[in-house]
From TrEMBL:
This is Cilia- and flagella-associated protein 61 N-terminal domain-containing protein. It comes from Esox lucius. Pfam families: CFAP61_dimer, CFAP61_N, Pyr_redox_2. Residues 16-137, 156-235, 299-457 form the Cilia- and flagella-associated protein 61 N-terminal domain. One of its GO terms (molecular function) is oxidoreductase activity. Residues 609-861 form the FAD/NAD(P)-binding domain. Residues 913-1024 form the CFAP61 dimerisation domain.
Length: 1112
């Protein structure tokens, strides 16, 4: 927080922040005649959407004192935004200049506010040197505010006092690492290989840097991918290509060897991933190998120590020209930083070097090439003569042919094969092409708006259709990667675009475009929940085909003008997530033909998230945790270091352990042994299939396709066993060859026979279907022997004991869904790591284990006994909701914009979390039934005292059952249908009041609802399925709570209801009639109607079936 002084001498504490759309009203109130005279009439919201940078100065009580908006081109129609450079002198360019488009302030604070805003903007935008105001009111008068930098020089003893406060925060850590006299020792050690310098402002030292040419390059090459940089050694002379002669007076004080063309492709290959989808899929060997020789000369120096006053940290790059002069024969500057350290502003101009997969160093390596100091970076439209240079630039890229094809189409017709307009731009430094960008007009913007939450970043109505572009190709020499956002900003300006989008398709779809290196500059856009429209019933009232058409799902990334100068925080912390349950971030739900559906994450969800673009996926098994070294040991011997470890291994179906009872010699009067909870330790037969994840299901599916004869035995009581039986029938296996073997009720892992169907009608339908198809069902059986106790490879027979006659089955394949439990290797790993395990891994309400660096969630866990909630665990809740809560708890460590909770309850840590989303179960059952069961979270379902609504019959395949609670809200949904139904629509019904469902109870009682499937296809209910309906409900709730009753001392509606319940209010009418009159007379009803119309109007593209105001 800083202070400014008004013209009258009043001192005000102020904070400067990015402007938000909610500030528009206060900004408008500050616009006066003088403002209009200089800036013209301004639409503030429109300006905020188009400005590259907008800042607001707030007072201590959060009132707007001043606002300024800046853009990368002059305002008004003085000159075209793509060609303003000749309009000003040559010292002003797109890289170092911004234009002021609006400044408003409270009159008394106008001068102080202007100074504070200008100072902060110069600090925030590193390359900025000039802020220009160009206006037509005075004949095109231009006013510039220029920033003067400060210089670096050799260290002097008298600078020590100035630097003391800079090192104050880090003194303890530095003393522990380097001793109490580290600063003096660095200064005394200066020689040709070691230097120290300060940066001063107005005669005061504000920053310190120590650099050294003595680097352990062997160690760095062992742990980082430095092959594309020649291992930071001097290249041989034959590898070097000099630049073309430079114009007189434009020679930079850096090495002439800007780029070696044959190595440029190699540099790009490291940063532009071969396949955008396959960022990392497990440990791989580097394709770069170095053959060190005795004569190799280092080509890098390192930053040993760096510190700068926080007020000047955005100008940290001022050090770089000076330190490169100290090492004129070296081209690279490197710095290593701890992984958990916040990213320094200095590092925004550096490149993070990719570490080897075997690296366990607790630090990140950043690198900067001296050519990155060049300020002649320019962007222009591509011309035909650029093609040879572009070919050299992209020759090592996997998508180079696609890029060159698009470039040729731009040269020939300015359009692609579909007739969509193309634009191509090249980036130049010293007349050499160092980057290329190709964009096309975005023709699917309506689909994007409907399917992705793009309006979290822009107000769509303030952007024309022609201003949306699709980013096709982005290639930039890694030396200049710190100019990536500037390059995108220039493309937006030159192309007259306001937004760019880039699609990342799933691995099974060919990726034509290459932009992987720019993803860090863009923001991922969340996909939106989609309404499943009954198109035939809607007819002409259906949404446009541009919205409802079926496309290959993809992940969408976005950038707009506002984001080009928005800083992004880089987090280098290593977060390792172990497991494949629905709770974890990367999960593989059982959605193959052989398993039930979790309805948490499906293939489409994975495609729209494109997690492979942001994380590394390692296919291995955890066999150890080294808590001291913070490493996870994998089954292949590799070690994965972590700073935060999340265990979400869940519970898996375990290989069944036979009791060993010989059914051939079993006396009839012998008491059978209880089913032992023992772990199977023998060899697992090849035809014993235990299905736990998507990979298991796909493997089993392929294996079963080659089995043409013999019995298939399915062992278990869960819904997975039933869906597996249906999958076998659909694969062509005769019902007589399928044996469904149920465990005894007391021995089942989670359910007794048939109990996985809480609705008895569903159970009855499935039993009839199994009987009709000829599937053999055996109840209450315990596995006794495989192959009569002989070697089990392969399984040819299975023996079971039961309360009745023993059972022996010939077997070609044994599919196991018998019992779930924590994997033994996971248990052993957790136990060996001394994590508290009490039947399951013990956690607190915030997911912490007894190690603060290790968290856990999902069915693997249980709550600590101090909560007195032994019967509750994460397995009783919606796994997606639990996973999102886990992610939110981790995000608080890294997101600086998240404010801590104000005054949280003192006993909050004594309560387990309260999750409210429904638990979902479903799948395709025998008989071809599509099954869905939605119920409230909890450990048990008590008999509901509410109303039951039922339509259809099992026999006709249209069974639909709703259970309402005592408050007439939907608590349970059960669907069993021979026809597919819109699952995502029906999930939106959970928790809704029957009045919201078009007075469902009244209509049902009057006999007007004959088929709930048809009822929930009607036009009126489609708004409830919209993804923004929950927000609309919250808005309605706020209106009701904020409405003040006029004739009752201004109390709120909620307070009035409380008084009515407590019999403290006299009224003669029926309560609902009385409340309706009071609410209407208080203006609440009018506000509610207005909000409803606004909701329908704002979402009219998806809700075309509703009449809009003025339509009739």
């Amino acid at each position: 927080m800083r202070t400014i002084t008004s013209l009258g001498g009043k001192v005000e504490n102020v904070t400067l922040r990015r402007t938000e759309s909610s500030d528009a009203h206060e900004i408008n109130s500050l616009i006066g005649p003088d403002t209009v005279a200089v800036f013209g009439r301004v639409n503030v919201i429109h300006l905020l959407e188009r400005a590259n940078l907008a800042v607001t100065l707030n007072s201590a009580n959060d009132k707007v004192l001043a606002h300024a908006a800046f853009s990368d081109h002059p305002m008004g129609g003085i000159v075209d935004q793509a060609g303003w450079e000749p309009f000003l002198c040559e010292n002003y360019g797109p890289l170092n200049t911004l234009f002021l488009h609006l400044f408003v302030a409270q009159p008394d604070f106008s001068v102080g506010s202007a100074k504070e805003i200008v100072r902060t903007v110069f600090s925030a935008v590193t390359e900025l040197q000039c802020i220009c105001l160009v206006t037509t009111t005075s004949g095109g008068l231009g006013e510039c505010v220029c920033h003067n930098g400060y210089c670096g020089f050799c260290y002097r003893v008298e600078d020590s006092d100035d630097l003391t406060h800079i090192f104050a925060e880090q003194t303890t850590a530095l003393t522990e690492s380097y001793g109490p006299y580290f600063l003096a020792e660095l200064v005394e050690a200066q020689d040709e290989e070691h230097h120290a310098a300060v940066c001063e402002n107005e005669g005061t030292a504000v920053g310190f840097i120590s650099v050294s040419g003595d680097i352990n390059l062997k160690l760095l090459n062992e742990h980082f991918e430095l092959g594309p940089f020649d291992g930071l050694y001097k290249p041989s002379p034959e590898q070097m290509t000099e630049l073309a002669p430079e114009a007189e007076g434009h020679r930079p004080p850096v090495s002439h060897h800007l780029v070696r063309p044959w190595k440029l492709g190699a540099l790009l290959h490291l940063f532009l991933i071969e396949d955008t989808q396959a960022c990392a899929v497990g440990p791989q060997e580097s394709e770069w190998t170095l053959e060190p020789t005795v004569l190799q000369t280092p080509n890098a120096f390192c930053i040993q120590l760096f510190a700068i006053d926080k007020k000047f940290e955005m100008r940290s790059t001022e050090f770089l020209p000076y330190v490169f002069q100290l090492f004129p024969d070296r081209d690279f500057c490197v710095i290593s930083v701890p992984k958990l350290a916040p990213e320094l502003p200095l590092l925004q101009n550096f490149h993070r070097v990719v570490p080897h997969h075997t690296s366990i160093l607790p630090e990140e390596l950043y690198i900067f090439h001296r050519s990155g100091l060049l300020k002649t970076f320019a962007v222009r439209l591509a011309v035909t003569g650029d093609r040879p240079a572009v070919c050299v630039l992209v020759k090592r890229l996997s998508q180079n042919e696609s890029l060159l094809e698009d470039l040729d189409m731009y040269f020939q017709a300015r359009r692609d094969t579909n007739g969509t307009a193309l634009q191509a731009f090249v980036a130049q430094v010293q007349n050499q092409v160092v980057g290329i960008v190709i964009i096309r007009n975005e023709e699917d913007i309506d689909y994007i708006r409907a399917n992705y939450n793009i309006e979290s970043f822009i107000y769509f109505s303030h952007h024309g259709y022609e201003e949306h572009g699709q980013l096709c190709h982005f290639v930039l020499n890694p030396i200049f990667q710190h100019y990536s956002k500037h390059l995108l900003k220039e493309v937006l300006r030159l192309a007259h675009k306001s937004c760019l989008y880039y699609r990342v398709f799933p691995s099974y779809h060919k990726q034509r475009y290459s932009c992987a290196s720019v993803l860090n500059c863009m923001v991922p856009v969340r996909p939106r929940h989609q309404i499943v429209y009954p198109l035939e019933e809607l007819g002409i009232n259906a949404p446009s085909i541009r919205i409802t058409k079926d496309q290959v799902p993809y992940a969408l990334n976005h950038i707009n003008r506002k984001l080009t100068l928005e800083p992004k925080v880089t987090i280098n912390a290593r977060i390792v997530v172990v497991g494949a349950s629905d709770t974890e971030f990367v999960n593989f739900p059982l959605n193959s033909p052989l398993s039930s559906l979790s309805h948490c994450y499906g293939d489409r969800d994975h495609a729209q998230l494109s997690l492979r673009s942001w994380i590394n996926v390692v296919m291995a098994k955890m066999v150890g945790i080294d808590r001291a070294a913070k490493n996870v040991l994998l089954s292949g011997g590799q070690r994965v270091p972590f700073d935060h470890l999340v265990l979400c291994t869940g519970q898996q179906y375990q290989v069944p352990c036979p009791t060993g009872v010989d059914i051939c010699n079993l006396p009839s009067d012998v008491q059978l042994p209880d089913r032992p909870h023992r772990r199977y330790t023998g060899p697992v037969p090849s035809n014993l299939l235990t299905l736990n994840d998507h990979h298991d299901c796909v493997t089993a599916y392929r294996w079963l396709q080659i089995i043409s004869e013999g019995n298939a035995v399915v062992y278990g009581n869960t819904i997975d066993a039933y869906t597996c039986a249906e999958a076998l029938l659909r694969m062509g296996v005769q019902g007589s060859r399928i044996h469904l073997v149920h465990l005894p009720a007391a021995g089942a892992s989670s359910c007794s026979p048939g109990s996985c169907f809480s609705n008895p009608m569903v159970k009855k339908a499935v039993e009839k279907a199994l009987e009709k198809t000829g599937v053999h069902v055996h109840l209450g059986c315990t596995l006794a022997q495989m192959n009569d106790g002989q070697h089990p490879e392969p399984i040819t027979s299975l023996s079971f004991t039961s309360d009745g006659q023993p059972l022996r089955l010939e077997c070609s394949v044994f599919i196991n869904f018998s019992s779930k439990g924590v994997d033994y290797d996971a248990f052993k790993t957790i136990s060996d790591a001394c994590l508290v395990y009490d039947g399951r891994l013990v956690i607190d309400a915030a997911f912490h284990t007894n190690d603060p660096a290790i968290r856990a969630a999902g069915p693997l866990t249980k709550f600590s006994r101090r909560y007195h909630a032994d019967r509750w665990s994460h397995s009783d809740f919606n796994p997606r909701e639990v996973g999102q809560d886990l992610a939110a708890s981790l995000l608080a460590f890294f997101d600086p914009t998240l404010a801590p909770a104000m005054n949280p309850p003192a006993d909050l840590d004594r309560l387990i979390p309260n999750y409210t989303r429904a638990r979902i179960q479903g799948g395709r059952l025998p008989g071809g039934y599509n099954y869905l069961h939605v119920t409230k979270p909890g450990i048990e379902q008590r008999p509901c005292s509410g109303k039951e609504i039922l339509t259809g019959r099992i026999e006709t395949g249209n069974y639909f059952h709703l259970q309402l609670n005592q408050y007439e809200m939907v608590e349970t949904i059960t669907c069993l249908s021979l026809k597919p139904f819109p699952v995502s629509n029906y999930l939106c019904l959970y928790g809704k009041h029957q009045l919201l469902l078009n007075r469902l109870c009244c209509r049902y009682d009057e006999g007007l609802v004959h088929d709930l499937y048809s009822y929930f296809k009607e036009k009126w209910c489609l708004a409830i399925y919209h993804d923004r309906f929950p927000d609309f409900e919250k808005e309605i709730q706020q209106i009701i709570e904020s409405t003040k009753v006029q004739d009752h001392s201004g109390m709120s509606i909620a307070e009035l209801i409380h008084r009515m319940v407590d019999d403290k209010l006299d009224f003669t009418e029926e309560p609902d009639v009385f409340l309706k009159k009071v609410f209407e007379s208080s203006g609440g009803l009018a506000s509610l109607k207005t909000s409803t119309l606004n909701y329908l109007s704002f979402n009219r593209f998806q809700l075309t079936m509703y009449a809009q105001p003025g339509l009739l």
